[in-house]
Amino acid sequence: MSVTEASAAYEGLADRLHAVQDGIAEACRAAGRDASETTLIVVTKFHPASLVEALAELGVRDVGENRHQEAREKSAQLAGLDLNWHYIGQLQTKKARQAAQYAAAIHSIDRAQLVDALASVDRALDVFLQINLTDDPGRGGAAPSEIEPLTEHILGTESLVLRGVMAVAPLEEPAAQAFERLAGYSDRVRALAPEATAISAGMTHDYAEAIAAGATHLRIGSAITGNRPDAR
Ligand SMILES: *Cc1c(COP(=O)(O)O)cnc(C)c1O
């Protein structure tokens, strides 16, 4: 497809992307932060590779996926585009080495076995420690009590580069309050790993609150892509 064709096939995509970019700039201004401190990761899960291609034409460099099979296929199809693929979903230990082949960063580190599996890959890989902001152990992320041991475990590897923390705001609590807690968890990680300053937080409905609480990596999907097609 030519430069205009792929994005023209997705009506409104450019407008929605620009509206979110403006919203990020505005939230940064309100928080007294510089927008250059933030990275927008456009979450493209369930959408076809052609939509990712259209986003790339609009200047997007960072995309997020939450299912390994889908992420692997799309990243292979679009290998020529030089995109950074962020893996943001639950990751099975036995798929970890494969995910490390295409992912620039893995945001969902929540247990020691996953650290070990990823560390066995012979290349540097950015990782985020995902923390569960709820009391429900069934939700993604490590319990807060695991922060120090998991941080030490990641720091003990040769190849994993700990960038910071990641979380999803719970539905049952104001996002601002949950992200304040996350900022405190980030402080605990940085006490052991001073370079791990990143905070991956903020989605379509709560990115302004996340920015106010210090988020650096915003994972925004439907506000940009439109509604997701049904999960297959
Ligand atoms: C789907 C997803 C997002 C993006 O969600 P939207 O509400 O569409 O912006 C962000 N983070 C994770 C972990 C996701 O699974």
UniProtKB/TrEMBL annotation:
Its cofactor is pyridoxal 5'-phosphate. Residues 30-229 form the Alanine racemase N-terminal domain. It comes from the Bacteria. InterPro entries: Ala_racemase_N, PLP-binding_barrel, PyrdxlP_homeostasis. The keyword Nucleus does not apply. Keywords: Pyridoxal phosphate. The keyword Chaperone does not apply. One of its GO terms (molecular function) is pyridoxal phosphate binding. The modification N6-(pyridoxal phosphate)lysine is found at K45. Pyridoxal 5'-phosphate (PLP)-binding protein, which is involved in PLP homeostasis. HAMAP family: PLP_homeostasis. Belongs to the pyridoxal phosphate-binding protein YggS/PROSC family. This is Pyridoxal phosphate homeostasis protein. It comes from Leucobacter aridicollis.
